[in-house]
Amino acid sequence: MPVPDPVPAEDLGIDYSDIEAKYSISYEEGFDNVLVVDGVPIIDRSRESRLFAKISKEFGRKGVPIKEGGIHMPYEEGSGKSKGYIFVEFASPEEASDALVAMHHFPFDAKHTFSINRFTDIEKYATLDETYVPPAVSNYTSRPHMRSWLADPAGRDQFLTYVGDEVQIFWNARTGPDPAFTRHNWTDLYVAWSPHGTYLTTLHRQGLQIWGGSEWGLVRRIAHPLARLVDFSPNEKYLVTWSNEPIVIPPGAQQGPTFFSPDDEGNNLAVWEVSTGHLLRTFSIEGTTTVASGEKKQMTWPQLKWSGDDRYVARVNPGQAISVYEVPSMHMLDKKSIKIDGVVDFEWCPPSDDELSKIRETEKEGDRDATGDGKKGKRNGVARVRENMLAYWVPEVANQPARVTLLAIPSRTQLRTKNLFSVSEFAWEPRGDRFAILSSSDPNLGNIAPGITIKMDVSFFQLEKGKNFKLLSTLVLTPDKTTNAIRWSPKGRHVVLGSIFPVTRFELEFYDLEFTIDPERINTHTAEWGSLVQHLATAEHYGVTDVEWDPSGRYVASSASVWRPTPEHGWSLWDFRGQELVKQPADKFKQFLWRPRPKTLLTKAQQKEVRKNLKEYSRAFDEADAAEESHADKELVAQRRRLLDEWNAWRKKVRPEVQERMARLGRKAKGGEDREEVEEWLEEVIEEIIEPRILLPLIIFRPEAGVRKTHYSRLPLDAPLSPFDPEQFLCHKVRFPSSTAIQDKYAVEWDLATSCGLSAAYIIDFD
């Protein structure tokens, strides 16, 4: 090998730094891009490639791909087994940071969960100085109160309307809607509340935005472009989004746990964690689904349905199976779907108040029954929570009737099966003790033709003491009924059966399943089975497209949206008895949404105490209502008095002009100051509201005499003051009070009763 010539002495002073920098070879320095992953399965060398492939796949699914050849696993020298941890190398320290956030505590399988640290942190803490140094105290930054509306002194609920491009939030006040917040162009598509009312979601072309707090600040962005549908889990921990456009990952797209990865490309449904914005998993679900018969049907929403405790999420493959996934790992339960031939749909049974209390207690104890054996008993003094239940239904096939089956999850135990005929609608009562089914045994079902009306039945089932569901009552609907929707009150007991779009007969039927004349004697367990079901009222809202209960279970909102081809748009409010309270037509009306409430934190004993003292609490609310009415009356009286004072001031101002005009007409003005007496009554009425009245002045001109007259009468406070034409006063005759002297002195031809509702007038001449 030839030896290079030495550098000439005259060239030693030349600066070659720019050339050296251009052609220098960079060496990676530092280990900021290296993570140590503990909790890895212990294997031998023969299974290394398979394990590395699976680990790389899991990291890639989270949007944090591992550098090629970047996994290093140490082995024991004697046994040849791995040590249970690996070193993972990424392209940059930033990607390593994203991977740490996304994969720390990740459940790799049923027996192994990752625990991740930075390689540099291990060395840092190994050489940590044992001398205590007080940490720096950072300034406290207050966060917005996400449930501030619950502190309303009047205990009012809120609702939202979307009309045109304006989103408005109102208080549902006793005197009518009270505006609380307004924003224009807040969303591109529509808005959606979270189940507890904590968040409001708006949809945009770039994705979703989640808002909250008293000032409605931005909480989080979800990067799902062109998302069209959104759904929260019952406890607001997770979010599901769907777009009709498949996910596309453009070159150079940002990667990380909050973004889609190349493995998600082509899918269109995504599951997110709300608190972090992390993507958990994506699915491929088209806008249309194919049933067992090969027929294509429109996709139903939500596609993923959550258990009441957010532990499981499930989806149905129509006609074939139900797939249940554990959260947050999103692994399929027992690694296989539940095969059910002909299954159409399913619903999770919502937990009752007692079960929610038990769930909270077990979560506090940290002793959740993960085995799901469903057995009764206690552990550490805390009652076990029963298994989750879901009800699925299979339509009528050949000679087999339709059936509804209750299934326990995760044990997959069939609890009960009930044969039915042609189920078309199913809805659980929110308390989880009852459910309703809309079905039909009409032979014409499936052969719909002009002039044929399908006869429908509504059946209510209730949980017995023996934990079996028994038929509570069946409502045989008349042939002219077109019921197609079941809407339970959030508090249970009351239900609305609706005939909503696309039917042509729009009716709302209100039912009470625990009706009794004496509420103190009600006992649903001792009463005759089904005897308490009572029809309360039938109402009509022409063109109704949506029906929704408020969180208190006292009001029902029906609305007709411009998104459906209905002739009238707007919304109406009803009470639980079916009485209409508010009717609000609105052009370009799109949405009406009640703001949900979170579950109560009161124990059963505390709730019982509240019901026991309900009369005392009601008295306080009645006094507050009376004070509010009195305040409103006082304001109206003050307004009327202000108008009277303005009139008197004007009268005093124009008096010299009137006297001057009288002098020109040859009439002698009266000396002294005219006096005007206003008579007032103060009435005190016990337990009765009397509409307050005051004296109001009206002016009359008699052109033929040039006389100005002032008429006083006792008018209702809300009586309109219409403008008067002086010429018309000569065409009618006035009715006077019983005063002969006044009747003899004046004869004014004017009927005050027909012009503004006056029954009498006092005439005072001040010319």
Strand % is: 25-35%
By CATH, the topology of the largest domain is Methylamine Dehydrogenase, Chain H
* Domain module count: 5
CATH superfamily name of the largest domain?
YVTN repeat-like/Quinoprotein amine dehydrogenase
Write down the Rg.
38 Å
Number of helices: 9
**CATH architecture name of the largest domain:** 7 Propeller
Major sheet size, sense and barrel closure: 4 strands, antiparallel
Write out the strand line-up for the largest beta sheet, numbering strands in chain order: 2-3-1-4
Give the overall silhouette.
Answer: globular
Gap between N and C termini: 134 Å
**Count of individual beta strands:** 43
The low-confidence parts are 367-383, 685-767
Summarize the structure.
The protein is α+β, with helices and mostly antiparallel strands.
Q: What does this protein structure show overall?
A:
This protein is of the alpha+beta class and 767 residues long. It contains nine helices and 43 strands. It has five domains: 34-126, Alpha-Beta Plaits (2-Layer Sandwich); 187-285; 288-361 and 383-420, Nuclear Transport Factor 2, Chain: A (Roll); 428-446 and 453-516 and 526-598, Methylamine Dehydrogenase, Chain H, CATH 2.130.10; 618-765, no CATH class. The chain is globular, with a radius of gyration of 38 Å. The protein starts with 16 loop residues before the first helix and ends with a strand.
